[in-house]
Amino acid sequence: MSHKSEFSVAGTYPYNHKNAIRWVISHLMRYKFFLVATATLFTVAYAAYAQSAVLIGRAAEEILTPSSGTEGALVTIALLVLLVLVTDGVASLFASLSVETLAQRMEVDARHELYISLLGKSQTFHDRQRVGDIMARATDDVKQLNFMVNPGILFMFDLVLGFAVPMVYIALIDLRLLAVPILLVVLYFITASDYSRRLNPVVNRLRTQFGTMNARLEETISGIEVVKASTTESFERQKFRDNARGFRDYFVQQGRIEAGYLPILIYGIAYGLIFLHGIFLYRADEILLGEVIAVIGLFSVMRFPTILSLFALTLIQNGLAGADRILTIIKTETELDENREGISRTIEGDIVFENVDFAYNGTNVLGDINVHIRPGQTVAIIGQTGAGKSTLTRLVNRTYDVSGGRILVDGVDVREWNLATLRSQISSIEQDIFLFSRTIAENIAFGAPGATQEQIEEAARAAQAHDFILSFQEGYQTKIGERGVTLSGGQRQRLALARAFLSNPRVLILDDSTSAIDSATEGEIQRALRRMQEGRTVLMITHRLSQIRWADVIIVLDQGRIVASGAHEDLLRSSPHYRRIFARFDVELPPLEAEEPAA
Ligand code: ADP
After folding, report:
1. Of the residues 123, 391, 396, 510, which should be mutated to test ligand 1's pocket, given the most ligand atoms within 8 Å of the CB?
2. Residues 444, 384: one domain?
3. pLDDT (0 to 100) of residue 362
4. What is the pLDDT of residue 7?
């Protein structure tokens, strides 16, 4: 795989990503044994089954031309019929087992491949994707791959062998009798490919529609608070109904196309024709009556695969449509590269922004940013909402890459660092703290999976979280609801801090990290924060005067540009912008430098 990725697993199986068909084949080829086993077992099963028709023809012949040995011959034939049918049953059984194993393995592999590729995609990619649609691809589309193999490909084996084996036996009786079966095969190919051609667009739209429906559902459920607060339930319901109906309509369309599947009709006509042909040859004394019976029996074997092929084609079309949707995601180029060979060492914490520009999809958000932050400094970034504060901090750990200029960490461009090394040493506590639906201990140890219970508790103590954790009945083993709904804002903050303590980063980014906190816990959080700050470089987005004051450097952002930077006292004296921000706090402002003589 040559795709750029932020995360990849070494030595993964080299699947072919050229197109959906090749991708599916490369997945199947991983299990050559099961493919060969299935084909072999199916051949045995069909050969045995077809043989039974031949044997029954022979029995009819024995009855029609009785002799002294007839009775014994009939018993032998009956026993042989039993034997071949048992062989057919056993071989079919193992063939099913083999193909099911193949289907399940392929499903797991494909899901795994998609999952790893999702982990490796950049933030920009995920910003653009609808979660529900991705989920549909990872669950339903992957499932279609499974169905495509079993029973889809299984039915295809049925089709090929169910046609080929009886034709061989028919040929053995009389070559001329192949005329009708060959005509059937030719007409089958023409009608079946026409069927596939018509089915293809409908199936593709069906898959897409499922993704759309799922995405809508996911959004509504995730945003249920907003939906309820704005009483738009009936609107959402209508939307969902439209989507669900769209999905249904494509299914009905599919059914309509399926109803027009001609091979079954053609088979019926061919059945009459081969009967006539057989009778004709019998009347001309070319073949025996028993052989006519055998031929009819053999031709009947072909009926089942003809019917099954209808489902096989639909399942294969569905599988390929799903494969295409999965592959599209896998193939989407990621802007960032994990840079495995990049620099990997402990970060000191010296950060330089050098003429940095940044745009989200062409919209400029930051321009001409120049800052030098020294190891161990605490920098407060202030400015109005939308000024670009969060964006600025996200460039340091390469959540996004700069559009222009560069960012140096310890004198090295962030793009030259090994991405995993860089990110593992930069912790970020976001405004909206995400907790997983796992235990408290697991949430704290999220970035450090090997952590012991002692280490986890130590981190929790440092983050002033230990006490409230113990107040829960199950302590550290308490499970957190999705997104930590059962915890208060302040408790979540402290868990996030504990998580940061444990991962012991060299650079810490705090995004409005105490905004959700009541004054009762603020003191505790402040204490935890100060401990956290020791010996680390800290970038802090905040509106809190107390925090701004203890920063070494303050950066004032306005519409994506730095309008002032420096220490608190200096800025108060030199920057009208800074003073304006402070005017809302009840603090005494020193006179502006420029105004000093007048005052
Ligand atoms: P702040 O943190 O100062 O409130 P942000 O850095 O969050 O500001 O946002 C700066 C600008 O970038 C805003 O105009 C915002 O709408 C835009 N923005 C933020 N995140 C994204 C994103 N993921 N995609 C596109 N635009 C974004």
Report:
1. 391
2. no
3. 87
4. 83
Residue with CA at minimum distance from ligand 1 atom 6? 388
> Last residue of a domain, which of 304, 331, 358?
331
Distance (angstroms) between ligand 1 centre and the Cα of 125 equals 16
> What residues are in contact with ligand 1 under a 6 Å CB criterion?
127, 360, 365, 383, 385-391
pLDDT, position 447: 79
CA neighbours closer than 13 Å in the CB half-sphere of residue 65:
7
pLDDT score, position 587: 63
Q: Count CA atoms closer than 13 A to 83's CA, side-chain side.
A: 8
Classify residue 546 by burial, with Cβ atoms within 10 Å: 0-12, 13-18, 19+: exposed
Residue 504: Cβ-neighbour burial (10 angstroms; 0-12, 13-18, 19+): middle
Domain span at residue 439?
432-504
pLDDT at position 450 is 85
Q: 390 and 436 share a domain?
A: no
Residues in Cβ contact with 13 at an 8 Å cutoff, skipping those fewer than 6 apart? 30, 109
- Is the same domain home to 497 and 513? no
Q: How far is the CA of 343 from the centre of ligand 1 (A)?
A: 30
pLDDT at position 230 is 85
pLDDT for the residue numbered 1: 43
Q: Name which residue sits closest to atom 12 of ligand 1, judged by CA.
A: 365
- Intervals of the chain under pLDDT 50: 1-2, 595-599
Assigned domain for 167 exists: yes
Kindly state whether residue 3 falls inside one of the protein's structural domains. Answer: no
**What is the predicted pLDDT for the residue at 516?**
56
Ligand 1 centroid vs 127 CA: distance in angstroms?
12
Please report the pLDDT score of residue 137 as a whole number. Answer: 94
Would you say the C-alpha torsion 555, 557, 563, 569 has a positive or negative sign? negative
Structure tokens at 288: 């025996």
- Rounded distance from Cα 364 to ligand 1 centre (Å): 10
What global pTM score does this model have? 0.82
Distance CA 407, CA 402 (A): 8
In a domain, 594, yes or no: no
Chain centroid to CA 214: 14
